[in-house]
Amino acid sequence: xxxxxxxxxxxxxxKLLGDFLQAEGxxxxxxxxxxxxxxFLGKEEVGLVxxxxxxxxxxxxxxxxxxxxxxxx
Length: 73
Hints:
By secondary structure, this protein is α/β, with parallel strands linked by helices. It has helices at 11-23, 34-43, 60-70; strands at residues 2-7, 28-31, 46-51.
């Protein structure tokens, strides 16, 4: 199980967040779109999602709605 899923289109910010989380002992996965994040969640369990609201394509609010329909987190 991955501890945290980061859904952030800014690759540098996603890497920075991941570095901080990893330094604290968390495992993480970084996806750069809502679609990729949903695909990952369809295959893997995570404890927490850090979700950017202003994503290209499927924005963060719609991504959140879809996650909430499928997952209890």
